[in-house]
Amino acid sequence: MVESGQPAPLFSSEYYQDPYPTFAWLRENSPVHEFRFPVGDVRMWIVTRYEDVRTVLSDSRFSSEGGRWGNEEFKQAGLVSGAGSVLEEAVTVVDPPAHTRLRRLAMSTFTPRRVEEWRGIVRRLVTSTLDRCAERGRFDVMEDYAGVVSAGVMGEILGFRIERHQELVETLAKVFPSDPALMRYVPEGMAKICEYAERLVEEKRRNAGEDLTSALIRAEEAGDQLSKKELVAMVAAMILAGSDTIRAFVGNAVLALLDRPDQARLLRERPELAGSAVEEFLRFEGALSTVLFRLTTEDLDLAGTKLPAGSPVIAAILSANRDPLRFAEPDRLDITRTGTRHLGLGHGLHNCLGAALARLEGEIAIPALFERFPGLVPATPREEIRYIESWAMRRVVRLPVEVAEDGPVSAAAGPSA
Ligand code: HEM
Fold first, then answer.
1. Which of 168, 177, 200, 311 has its CA 20 to 30 Å from the CA of residue 412?
2. Quick check: CB of 350 below 6 Å from ligand 1?
3. Is residue 381 part of a domain?
4. Range of the domain at 162
């Protein structure tokens, strides 16, 4: 794709800092775009238009089972998610009928009563974390606020002992490094998460509580239950899918509001907008640029492009959510926007299993920061805020802020779109 006059090549350093011009170009010129994936130089396609992304996520000819449907090149490059670990059986990487069964058992534990109980946990953790941030006066939203709240909530919900929270935060930092040089620690971090999950399941089998892990152990549908391995994979998948995503999401939303003091003010003045604001944040810049790989199960045609069987396909949800064919003024953040039907939490069979928790945490944690610190301002020049170089996750590395007495300083703010 690199020709003069064209935007940054996919997955280049420049792209990671600002992928939107690349997405706009692709939507316009090559909506089902063939390229070479940087890991293993694998031939792949990326899909960037809203309608096509929805098709990839809901058409059963796009499988999540990389080990079964992926071509040799894809498998040889080690791109099959969870291969060789307990995560091979995770809900994220299996197709029906295995997926239907795992998903039904897991969903039976997300009862309205349990989600309501999580509200109390989130509020308490948000308040205590804000107290610590207030003592500091200057803090990093990613490390000291979003990271602590997201890992803390996940720990409490799944039933971790309190002393393991900090350890979880550190392990997650290993699994989702901000620095590409730290990629070599990923397998170690992954193994630790699986080990955590295994210990947790064993502990809750001996000593059940009111937490989600115990509920998953008890979950039963028509006499069917999750096996030990499936339980460990489910708990590990929740830790992996449900902590750093929330951290990224809260960080991106906070940055969007720091950039647009008018929207931050509106949210403070009209707390009833929290629900629509969260949907808009998920559309505007949720935690993920793309979802996990899909593999074509047969030769097929997608929007005029021929894809051979076994082809890896990346669905760019961040691009779909900025598609002008679907959203009016897609690059404008408007927390009063309604009926967005964004793809920030996915779509189809594999849509986010933790959506209720993601929304709940967002609705509490994002407004709470601006309510507590009406004078919150960036503590670093805007151009120094960097995004991590991850093909799937979109989040800033650090977001230093300080609590000013006199309200937001407009000079420190970035784009006003
Ligand atoms: C703002 C936070 C979150 C975002 C943006 C997010 C986004 C997503 C997306 C886009 C998918 C679809 C992946 C795909 O199709 O390949 C997904 C799936 C999933 N999410 Fe989330 N998620 C969030 C929070 C959570 C939380 C808190 C949990 C756990 C409680 C969770 C657990 C899962 C699981 C287990 C799946 C796989 C579901 C399946 O394959 O059937 N997520 N999430």
1. 177
2. yes
3. yes
4. 13-404
